[in-house]
Amino acid sequence: MIAAATDTSAVTNEWAMAEVIKHPHVLKKIQEELDTVVGSNRMVVESDLTHLNYLRCIVREIFRMHPAGPFLIPHESIEATTINGYYIPKKTRVFINTYALGRNTKIWDNVGEFRPERHLSADGSRVEISHGADFKILPFSAGKRKCPGAPLGVTLVLMALARLFHCFDWSPPVGLKAEDIDTSEVYGMTMPKAKPLIAVAKPRLAARLYQ
What predicted TM-score, i.e. pTM, was given to this entire model? Predict the structure, then answer.
């Protein structure tokens, strides 16, 4: 339980940091949202998260492109069934390929492009991240057997990223361009970056807020 909560959150946060730093216009846009919602005289608190819609888009886009658990946790069919013409016997071990769902060209355009704006709704309503009701992105599975820690996991990820983006300007290390940040993956029970992210942080708020 501890590993499931910590490793997946850490992997998700690192992917989000890598993609946002690789795309400076996204960093600028999320910082503009944070400055509007939170301002520059205090830190982000949990009640702010519901108003950070673009940040929610970033996390949803990370779940689409770089799911921490590419095949989720194994499930088992409790009775025989047929789905789309495929017969699934009782007690079949089932893996959900959520990585492939996020790159399904029948659902998503330009699947290799990091574009959080694709998740914004036309009416401006809050972007949902974890419920999986549309079956397009399933970071926590869906239905009765979905991850019970989904609300906590989403809150922890959003809070960590909100504070990192709000408190600091981020850039690649000297000698590396933003577009050169490596985003290759390592496949396993989780899917971390092949090479750990190295980045430079520069404070952007008043010094008293860091004490």
Answer: 0.91
